[in-house]
Design a protein that fits this description.
By secondary structure, the chain is an alpha/beta fold. The chain contains 18 helices and 15 strands. A seven-stranded mixed sheet has the order 4-10-9-8-7-5-6, sandwiched between helices. Strands 11-12-15-14 form a four-stranded antiparallel sheet. It is globular, with a radius of gyration of 22 Å. Bound molecules: pyridoxal-5'-phosphate (PLP). Pyridoxal-5'-phosphate binds next to helix 5.
């Protein structure tokens, strides 16, 4: 991958690119919502399609000279339809959150009742959290998890029957078990609600049979294109046959909601790159890789449990693991791992005893490690490093006293900056990474 022109014209930016590349190549990225976009996707993003305005849809643009843009948007739509077996696709949403808001805008009026999984239990902000516009403009009710850490389908049914939401979200951002889309479908059908699966995290797994397919059970699906689908940052909204049978106008409502309802010019370079990623996702290698993502997550989970860690819902069915690391200690684990060259994020756990800002767990996933070519053997190694890091910072504990907590945090920061064991792990991690280069 060359950036020869930028190197000559703007060395500062060129240097930032080198810095970020070096960071990605030499460390282990376990944030489950990230991916490694292929070189074709990256080249597509840097193409002259970024220059063009093309508001409207294929064959119905407001500006002239969109014949080639039309071909690009159409091929992205066709490939998405082929991959997901859906009736209609809108590839214009700028990202996942605008895609979700476009769904509300298509089928709800302000004040309508909606329902989604709460953020602290693994849902996404855009599924009705109070700080999001989706919680502000709609009467958003939230469901949660049961005592075992699984989606509480009894609660979902009870709330749905009592409160009769117009729109139900099924889909998660921090949940390690399979989502029972069929059961959600039965519940939505009982009350005549629109059912939307936000498959952002698992769309690559859904497309390849590594997760149950929501298509027969839901009216709509939304997804980001930059997680397990392995594309550029972007979003898509898909309408299923069940959706069109339920509401003949649904595809038109979605398109009108995206443009002119929410957005103006589509990002054509992004659409080109989505088309490139979808082409790759249709290949057998992608299918094999998606199944390996799940195998790797299971291998990592098994070894973590052997090390005595407490995993939410006892393990994983997908690409993601949520792990309790002690009250308030998510940040300790996140920061210490970061020094050791292993990146993941602090996260709430089921029945979180603290807060989303100072949670008691970490969230990790296997997509990027798998996209680099790593398998189960490497997962065992990663789990062993995590155990060493955990033991290294186990002396730092939660205090009820606010001042004391501040002091502990300062002491902790000094410790991880100076600690030899963390530096040693950092070197071992870099050595492993050398064997799995991202962009050769
Ligand atoms: C389930 C889910 N939906 C929507 C989004 C929002 O996507 P974006 O960051 O592209 O707006 C995310 C991102 O984390 C997500 O996990």
């Amino acid at each position: 991958m060359n950036f020869d022109h930028l190197q000559k014209t703007d060395p500062t930016l060129f240097w930032y690119i080198q810095e970020e590349r070096e960071r990605q190549e030499t460390s282990l990225e376990l944030i489950p919502s990230e991916c490694i976009a292929s070189l074709s996707t990256i080249e597509a993003l840097g193409s002259p399609f970024t220059n063009k305005y093309s508001e409207g849809y294929v064959g119905k643009r407001y500006y002239w000279w969109n014949e080639v843009v039309d071909k690009v948007e159409q091929i992205a739509i066709d490939r998405a339809k082929e991959l997901f077996w859906v009736e209609h696709v809108n590839v214009q949403p700028y990202s996942g959150s605008p895609a979700n808001f476009a769904v509300y805008n298509a089928i709800c009026e302000p004040g309508d009742t909606t329902m989604g999984l709460s953020l602290v239990e693994g849902g996404h902000l855009t599924h009705g959290h109070a700080v999001s516009a989706t919680g502000k403009f709609f009467n958003a009710i939230q469901y949660g998890l049961n005592a075992e850490g699984y989606l509480d389908m009894e609660q979902v049914e009870k709330l749905a029957l009592e409160r009769k939401p117009k729109l139900i979200w099924c889909g998660t951002t921090a949940y390690s078990r399979a989502v029972d889309f069929e059961k959600f479908g039965e519940i939505a059908d009982k009350i005549g609600a629109y059912l939307v699966a936000d498959i952002s995290h698992i769309s690559g797994l859904v497309a390849t049979g590594a997760h149950q397919d929501p298509v027969p059970y839901v009216h709509l699906m939304t997804t980001t294109t930059h997680k397990t689908l392995r594309g550029p940052r972007g979003g898509m909204i898909m309408v299923t046959k069940k959706g069109l049978d339920f509401d003949l106008e649904l595809a038109k409502k979605i398109d009108k909601s995206v443009f002119p309802g929410l957005q103006w010019g589509p990002h054509n370079h992004q659409t080109l790159a989505i088309a490139a990623a979808l082409w790759e996702a249709l290949k057998p290698e992608f299918q094999q890789m998606s199944h390996q993502i799940v195998k790797n997550a299971k291998a990592l989970a098994k070894r973590l449990i052997e090390h005595g860690f407490d995993l939410a819902a006892g393990g994983t069915d997908n690409h993601l693991i949520l792990m309790g690391v002690g009250k308030w200690r998510g940040q300790f684990m996140q920061d210490a791992l970061d020094v050791a060259g292993i990146t993941m994020n602090k996260n709430t756990i089921p029945n979180e005893p603290c807060s989303p800002f100072h949670p008691s767990g970490v969230r990790m996933g296997t997509p990027i490690m798998t996209m680099r070519g790593m398998g189960e053997a490497q997962m065992l190694q990663v789990a062993d490093w995590m155990k060493r890091v955990f033991d290294n910072v186990s002396g730092f504990e939660y205090s009820e006293d606010k001042q004391e907590r501040k002091r502990i945090l300062q002491e902790f920061t000094k410790h991880i900056q100076e600690d030899i064991e963390l530096q040693t792990i950092r070197k071992e991690v870099a050595e492993l990474c050398k064997g799995f280069p991202i962009y050769q």
